[in-house]
Amino acid sequence: MHLSERTWTDAADAGTDLAVLPVGSTEQHGPHAPLGTDVLTAEAVAEAGVERYDGEVVVAPAIPVGVAEEHRQFPGTLWVSEETFRSYVRETVDSLADHGWDRVVLVNGHGGNVDALREVAGRIVRRDDAYAVPFTWFDSVGDHAADMGHGGPLETAVLRAVAPELVREDRIDEAREGASDGWGEWVSGVNLAFDSAEFSENGVVGDPDEGDAERGEELLDLAADALAALLDAIETRDVSRPDRR
Amino acid sequence: MHLSERTWTDAADAGTDLAVLPVGSTEQHGPHAPLGTDVLTAEAVAEAGVERYDGEVVVAPAIPVGVAEEHRQFPGTLWVSEETFRSYVRETVDSLADHGWDRVVLVNGHGGNVDALREVAGRIVRRDDAYAVPFTWFDSVGDHAADMGHGGPLETAVLRAVAPELVREDRIDEAREGASDGWGEWVSGVNLAFDSAEFSENGVVGDPDEGDAERGEELLDLAADALAALLDAIETRDVSRPDRR
Amino acid sequence: MHLSERTWTDAADAGTDLAVLPVGSTEQHGPHAPLGTDVLTAEAVAEAGVERYDGEVVVAPAIPVGVAEEHRQFPGTLWVSEETFRSYVRETVDSLADHGWDRVVLVNGHGGNVDALREVAGRIVRRDDAYAVPFTWFDSVGDHAADMGHGGPLETAVLRAVAPELVREDRIDEAREGASDGWGEWVSGVNLAFDSAEFSENGVVGDPDEGDAERGEELLDLAADALAALLDAIETRDVSRPDRR
Amino acid sequence: MHLSERTWTDAADAGTDLAVLPVGSTEQHGPHAPLGTDVLTAEAVAEAGVERYDGEVVVAPAIPVGVAEEHRQFPGTLWVSEETFRSYVRETVDSLADHGWDRVVLVNGHGGNVDALREVAGRIVRRDDAYAVPFTWFDSVGDHAADMGHGGPLETAVLRAVAPELVREDRIDEAREGASDGWGEWVSGVNLAFDSAEFSENGVVGDPDEGDAERGEELLDLAADALAALLDAIETRDVSRPDRR
Amino acid sequence: MHLSERTWTDAADAGTDLAVLPVGSTEQHGPHAPLGTDVLTAEAVAEAGVERYDGEVVVAPAIPVGVAEEHRQFPGTLWVSEETFRSYVRETVDSLADHGWDRVVLVNGHGGNVDALREVAGRIVRRDDAYAVPFTWFDSVGDHAADMGHGGPLETAVLRAVAPELVREDRIDEAREGASDGWGEWVSGVNLAFDSAEFSENGVVGDPDEGDAERGEELLDLAADALAALLDAIETRDVSRPDRR
Amino acid sequence: MHLSERTWTDAADAGTDLAVLPVGSTEQHGPHAPLGTDVLTAEAVAEAGVERYDGEVVVAPAIPVGVAEEHRQFPGTLWVSEETFRSYVRETVDSLADHGWDRVVLVNGHGGNVDALREVAGRIVRRDDAYAVPFTWFDSVGDHAADMGHGGPLETAVLRAVAPELVREDRIDEAREGASDGWGEWVSGVNLAFDSAEFSENGVVGDPDEGDAERGEELLDLAADALAALLDAIETRDVSRPDRR
Hints:
6 copies of one chain form a homohexamer. By secondary structure, the first copy, chain A, is an alpha/beta fold. Helix content of chain A is 38%, strand content 10%.
């Protein structure tokens, strides 16, 4: 049940304690992929996973701006501070829980949100009347995960599957040429770079040409399976905090 | 230019300092109108106004959850605190301004956001490197404004014009019957009620039957004119703070 | 019972749950009216209303500095941020409630405080152990309200009635000449101005000559009636939050 | 120049960079002295000191509610948290400084405010565009200081000098009988008590009978001298921060 | 029991509700004494006092950075804001209390921490599930206290007793020569200085030569007695808040 | 140069812009390893790395309490919130930078601190006058990293090398028996557990018997090399933020 499209009386009838909250980012994804990539992919995965799950799940509207200051040198990137992002997510989850949907998966489409989401999930689980876990789709697609990049094979693949009209195919070569091979600048296991502009000329990491629509469908399929399995696991999990030793 | 659908290289080419940020709410709108009404209408007005304006305007993605705790007794209503809402809006605007789009209209679809938006706009104008004003569409539609209500004539009309498939026509009678005539419970010019459930049985204020699709088109037309005129006014306005007396 | 002038043992004997907290501002009111106008008028209205009310009411000391940054270009204007103002009001109300005076009217004399007071009253009602409503006197004086302005007819009238020695009658002409006709600069229902110095040369809005002492007495009388009626209403009101639908 | 009673045009003419901000508290002072004692005495000292000083000084309105939770068990005591108090004082001082009155004495009448005022003064001096110091009058009255107590000799004396009608002389015996000899419960140089109700039956510390009006005049005289000397010292002091070693 | 050196299973066996939390500062102490002086002395006093006390006491690790911005002009001085310091202390105490050690002495070695510790102790006592008091060792050493200074007789004495290898004896003359006689610059009972560099050339106050190792042992002995007595007092104290009057 | 043991005049002579700040945690490490493990190991690695580095490095005192609420069910675990931790680290780094040591490595010994340290380093790099990176030693020890666990092979090995007297060898069997094999409870790439007590009986993860003192020396050696290389890299790195695209 997509909340945005249903009435409160419909919501009152939802017999579930499961909800998903898509969380994205509006940020550069190279010259070929739209700034909204992380919202689109999070929504697509949430949609696919909920459809696959055998049971009712409430779908909240996607949060469009996240932790993306690392891309600020690229025009169009929007961002809020980690603190504001965590508060916005936390309070939204708490309002879901207020209606009884108190087991929530934060379906995330952006690497920069990962740490902040894990922190706020812990805060929710320990302090509020809800259980929440972040699920970052590209971490749950098996061996594909190693190809993640940024605006690279995986994201471009999913976009070609779900929103091909938004991919600028005529700029793929340009995207590939200005891309970097990996994320960051590493010494002794430490990333010395804090901004993507420190290591990528055009914001791309990885080769977008390695992600066609077919691979996109496969990724969506894997992510949907993973999300459905996750919903299944948390639906029955004992989420109370353990006893003191 | 809708940021979500364009690349950062497109954004880099946008020759404007104008942006609009749609701001909505996900909250009850009676048994007949979707929880996403305030996002949908804010987006529709932003779209129409930008199209009418003679010049380039950047369109940010809509903020979906706002100040709506007053509706919390109705399932599906989502909300964040005023402080979190203001921070989320402010930082999003600041990131728009970071790219040079530093004259921003907050296109608002929800009455509960009005005060918080005015406050944060003042904060932005006085403290940050941007100028922002809130524009609440239903305050800019001439004599229609008096009919506003909640899930009433105006909102239902616009929905029927832009998203008729989301209006439950089969529940209009139910909506009308549980509606209240006015917003709040007033003594000496003071509204004693803080929650809509104190004065409306089903969350509706006003008669949704008085808002057909034709009226919706007229409202959109009036709001688009108003927004275009506003963009025109702020494009040339001297937004520096006045001198000390 | 004015708390400031009574002892704690007197306070212990107060058999009421009603309190009023006058809230003002120290800010420019033109060349003819004192910076303390909004405190003086709030106190006068609180005094008159409490006297008229048939029952015991605790009167807290007036809060002298409010939300007035919009007048900062005029020397002598003092202000705090909205956040600090709300915290100061909220915690003061909470301490009143701690003694059992948990139905509180915030008797306000300043337009710039209105939104912040409504927000904090909602916070108090929903989160704390008290009920509070803001009462802005010039919104409760019938048709006079349309003449409000700033340092204009209404405020000058009340000052002439309660503190004539503080009105500089020799500067009334000067005040009138530098005044603006209305508050703000409006386009499409939006006030583009954030500071009063953007639209008023000397800080005055309206004609102070239209407010003599007689009118001031009438205004006080109307405001006192309104406040007494409000106290009456909240004394018996069920202030619990409504049930979930 | 008392800001509250003068216009902004008067304020514009004030040729000084000195201001005083009286800071009090509304809190129990035994069965004989009013809850407003600390505001009254702070205002009286500010008034007397400014009059004695040979030069122009701006006088801001008194802050009426301070750090007084330690008296919360006594009805009528009002308080805010230390954080809110510091923010309210700091921002008020900053607005004074915005008009050029950037050397400010915080004339304090309440022991519970002392630490918070020192902390916020340091914050102002180091971070903001102003210099501020707290001046607690009863610490600047020579040998009298040892008799301070609470609602005891010194405060009762000053009240009898400046507001005798507010002292309940008929309750002095009662006040003396329920009083404690000293402030706190001490072990190893540490006060184990956090609330005055832990060691005083009626909130009084010290014997109010030892403070007649004559002593009150003498105290005011001493405090006025001290405040005038302080204003003199800060008017010429180099308040820039020292160089790094 | 020093937590740092024991296991959680040891901690589980600790049959006590008493804990001490040493609190220091890393800041200039003249050319002869180490930047870590206040941590070292706080730890030494905590150690000695706990040893003297007849019963089990949990010893937490020392907090090394405190409220020391007043020394910032001297290289090597570290500091955090008062707010951050209070939060760090408060939450550490709350975690001690979570394990049942809910009567905590904050053993303090730095004058600049005193006010902040008293404030946070009050916050803990009134809001959290613990009782805490600050104990500043040099305030509990009888007549010696008058000689405190900074890097002066007392601190140098204790260092010579517990860590003589860290005292640069070859710089004692230099230390004495650049020292000031007293702390601050006083007018009318008010310290006009906010930074130690305003009144001390090399950061020293008092004569370090007046504190030999023997005096250091005596000071430790006195402080240990005082701390043991304090632990004894709070172990049996009724720490509930008093009843409303 | 260890700040704690040196004077401010020594600090003034330090000709470097490099500093390390050890960051630990006081938390359960099974029945055999001390609660202070993460502080001890962070300090040991910082010490070894600084010694190996060819140049001057300032060493700040270790922060002893970190982000460890996940272990709260085990007695003796201390923790502060992520926000307080970040503020404490950030302000300490800022005070280091104030003295010119503005390239700082946060030498971290605790997995629970990793995300918070990365976030605060980004804040420092982007907002403050310093560059900081977190270095978590067990992520920089080559293939050993896979054995990390908690109180497992690596930490026990290092303890046996640097503080063997604190390892309870008589409880190693007990530690091994109650240990879990891995960290967390995983479904679809998501850790459903938020507290270590959800998956480990005695708080141990991994087999402590696999970490003897020799392995500990090797780990220290690897970590020292890595830290020295990192110091070398940041000493010469251009740490300015990149240009806007």
